[in-house]
Amino acid sequence: MTLTQLDYIVAIDTHRHFATAAEHCHVTQPTLSMQIQKLEDELGVLLFDRSKHPVVPTETGQIIVAQAREVLQAARRIPELAKESRDEVGGELRVGIIPTLAPYLLPYFIGAFMARYPAVTIQLQELLTEQIVERLRNGLLDVGIVVTPLRENNMTDIPLFNEPFMVYAANGNPLLKKTTINPADLTGEGLWLLSEGHCFRDQVVNLCGGNHQGRSALRYETGSLETLVKLIDRQDGFTLLPYLATLDFDTARKKQLRSFAGIPPVREVSLVMHRSFLKRSLINALKREILTHLPTELRSQRQQPV
Parallel, antiparallel, or unpaired for β 143-148 and 120-126? Predict the structure, then answer.
């Protein structure tokens, strides 16, 4: 048994296709297939059901692949320990970030991070939370920037900051007659939401107590907060926005914003990794750079999570 063979079975489990796994491992498909067959012969078990499309691991194969992931993670940690002992920060960092954070948080720190660590190649992917978790589980991402808690097994998180919610309403909406907003004010028709799958949608629904009726004549699904804002400007109604999404608003739009009374509801933004995560020095460097460049008002938010 070799680490290369373990790498091959993990690739097949991740991609569920022999040719794609071989391409990912930079070998020919016959080479990969031969090594898998040798490993199965050595172990005396069938690891994959080749009769199914896509290919799936057998019951025993699932257990062995899970252990192989642990072994590979531990093996890849060894050169990292050597790097850390030399105070080196370099290599590739694969980062997933949710759409309701990406356009608003990344500009604050990404340029400074790349300038400070020129030996690091950073790969950014804008994904939904469940996609980030799946890619972390399969080793296709190193770290995610998401809203927590996730309540996912085998994941660990590092909280970064708490981001308040703001109310954005159309001109003439009754909510704008109030100086500040209470959650009880957010019932009734007129609430615009992101499409299913976005964690921010779930948080907004939770905050509004599930009592919203939505738009009666128009059903529109979008993953863009900016689209919601423009629809409200032209149509009517209101929505909730994360604080960072409002910082670039012009004077007119700022007049359509309202904060919450008292301690505002917030969402907790964190770095999330697999339990046996690698690239710790890189992830710690990413954390420091994010916290250094956050708007000062986000560094000491009291927490009332949604």
Answer: unpaired
